[in-house]
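Exam revision sheet. Question 4 asks you to relate a sequence to its structure. Input first:
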Amino acid sequence: QLQLVESGGGLVQPGGSLRLSCAVSGFALDYYTIGWFRQAPGKEREGVSCISTKVFNKKYAESVEGRFTISRDNAKNTVYLQMNSLKPEDTAIYYCAARRTVQAMCALSREWYREWGQGTQVTVSS
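Answer key, structure tokens:
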């Protein structure tokens, strides 16, 4: 059974950085597209970034473009989200999600993904 475990969240000041990790177990990461999502209190879960299999196509939400970078290390079965220049509005619970696919594509739609982690809290505050 596929399991996703997020880590790396915490409290950071505005302008600071964090790197989130999504560790995958149960299956080889090679066959899965991974997405990062976030949910702030009172708001819907929104797509932040995603990375495909094979050629590692990437997508970013407009709100994080240029500040966040997604990457994957299939040998370590881990996907990362490097978050720089953090803003208070980035405060949320961050989730990673997976979908097995042979297509070199990803999506920022939460309905597209089949497996989810439990989330890690990111708080940006002075």
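Marking note for examiners. The chain has a mean pLDDT of 95.
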